[in-house]
Amino acid sequence: MLALVTLVWAADIPVGPTRPDTSIEDAIQGAGNGDVLVIDGGVYPTGLISYAGKDITFRAAGPDPVVVRATGGTLFRVNGGGLTLQDLTLDGQGTAQLVDLNNSDLTATSVVMQDGVSPDEGGLVDIRNGDVTLVGCTLQGGVAVTSGGLVHHDGGALTVTDTTLADGQAPVGSAVFASTGGTFGDIVVTGSSGGSGTLSCRSGGGCTVSGARFEGNAAVGGAAVRFEGAGAHVLEDAVVCSNSGTTVVEADGGTLALRRSFVFDNAAANGAVWLGSGGSVLDTHVVGNTSGAGSAGLRLDGVVDLRNTLVAWNEGQGPAVVATGALTAAYNLYFANATADSSQALGATEAVADPLLLGHVVGSCDVDQLRPYTNSPLVDQGDPALLDGDGSRSDIGAYESDDAVPFIDADNDGSPALLDCDDNDPDVRPGLEEVPCNLKDDDCDPATPDDSDDDSDGVSVCDGDCDDLEPLVAPGFTEALCTGLDEDCDPATPDDFDDDADGVSVCAADCDDADPDVAPGNDETQCNGKDDDCDLATPDDLDQDVD
Do residues 245 and 225 lie in contact, with contact meaning Cβ atoms separated by under 8 Å? Predict the structure, then answer.
């Protein structure tokens, strides 16, 4: 007996204005498990796309942008299936959540998700019990009432790589709330604000953030990242700059390994970094952080190993490093911390010295400024038991020795060649005052002019304008009498005359400056044919009897 077997193959379903299915809503009606909606370029206003028990892919047909614009309260809702997104832009228009998945997996590659809102969790994406993979995506502008301004994930694996997370808002996890842990690599987290943690990661097994930039975020606790749970958490190869909160990097439960990172120019009320239950800080810059109270740099509770770390220019009411537990500190360098370097005595392998960085500029999140010179006490002065990638002795701070900048100062003015705009002239270097009209950039700041024409009269100071705030004054202009201005910038050209040397000048109303007997205040002499007192109301002749 023959059995009839029907095979169902996954199909590509074209979507576009010239296709049989002109809308995504039409195409999804006939889509089966494994099908791929291939969408032509254009803008697609779309209501709720909802399905269950199927894995469906939505991708752009080609290079033309595809924008899927939500018109309802949720764009994608999947239960017990899978959602794959490729090369799309999803727009919630400030009124809709974009992805709501339950017991379903999400894979998004090169996808922009923007302007979503949720009355509960996940302003853009909310996943419960599903694996999530985001690669090369941009998520921006999400608002959640409870947690996860951009992403809320609870249950399953979360992997986020090469992705930007921007402008999220939520009381907990203003960018991401990962309730069951996650792995993050090469991410940028910026512009998010809320309560506890911009990236809030909870896990008994540990969360890992490797290669990240946190900049311009604000939160009550963990303005960059907050780790919770009893696991072993990792933050490495990170740049954490210009964030504000009670803390900036926070581990509340479990241990945290912070390594090869830059934590600088943050404002944190209780310290930029807080290890609440122990861990380690290795090969890290902790520089230029400020605090209203307590430590501005590192607050270390529990058993902590602090090693090969630069702690400098931190400003707070307490020491830059405050340790309340068992701290092992070795091969660290301290410099110019406002109150004190550490709450405990420095160890024999620790030092206080100028790290000789390229140039720490407050307000700039460019880590190149934090590179050391080759003659820096950071270079090859780390723990000798640890080696750099080139096999040399380890360094103090986040840079290795081959990243150091050669110190060259040809004019011996104390400013290295990389910062000195003329290393052959000792009178030119950053920090000097600009000298007008010497054809040099004395202070190495192009914004400070060597010449000016503030009155816009076409003649600059260096061209001889003697009053560069007065547009009527410049060399070559015609001198006007009695203005009080040196219009032609030539003191030899008088602004006033007293040619008859009678003590009264033309500008003082001498009506005949060729006659010394004529001037205001003189007595009028009758019948001499002169206006002796320069007052026409005083007659030179009288006819009192009118005869």
Answer: no
- SS3 per-residue string spanning 318-330: CCCEEECCCEEEE
Question: Both tokens of residue 351?
Answer: 């030092």
Q: Are 212 and 189 in contact (CB under 8 A)?
A: yes
Closest to 32 measured CA to CA, from 16, 62, 56: 56
pLDDT of residue 49: 98
Structure tokens at 134: 């985001």
Q: Which long-range contacts (CB under 8 A, 24 or more apart) does 479-486 make?
A: 481/506, 481/507, 482/506, 482/507
Q: Which residue is it, tokens 């809702």?
A: 77
Hey, which bits of 253-354 come out as E strands? 255-259, 262-264, 267-268, 273-275, 279-287, 298-300, 304-312, 321-323, 327-330, 333-335, 351-352
pTM, 2 dp = 0.79
| Contacts (Cβ under 8 Å, ≥6 apart) of 472 | 457, 483, 485, 487
Using one digit for the tens of pLDDT, what is the confidence trace for 483-529? 767 777 877 777 666 567 777 766 766 677 677 877 787 767 778 87
In the chain, the largest separation of any two C-alpha atoms, in whole Å, equals 159
Do residues 92 and 99 touch, judged by C-beta distance below 8 A? no
- Residue 514, CB-side half-sphere exposure with 13 Å CA sphere: 1
Q: Which of 284, 295, 288 is nearest to 312 (CA)?
A: 288
Q: Taking the domains of the chain in order of start, what are their residue ranges?
A: 1-180, 191-407
Paired with 309 in beta bridges are: 284
- The CA distances from residue 510 to 72, 286, 345, in Å, are 88, 77, 86
The answer to whether the CB of 284 falls within 8 A of the CB of 263 is: yes
How many CB atoms are located within 10 Å of the residue 210 CB?
17
pLDDT digits (tens, 9 = 90+) for 390-441: 889 999 999 998 887 776 778 888 777 777 788 888 988 888 898 888 888 8
Compute the distance between CA of residue 10 and CA of residue 264 in angstroms, rounded to an integer.
Answer: 51
Given a contact cutoff of 8 angstroms between Cβ atoms, the answer to whether 326 and 303 are in contact is: yes
Using the structure block, give the residue that is written with the tokens 């205001």.
520
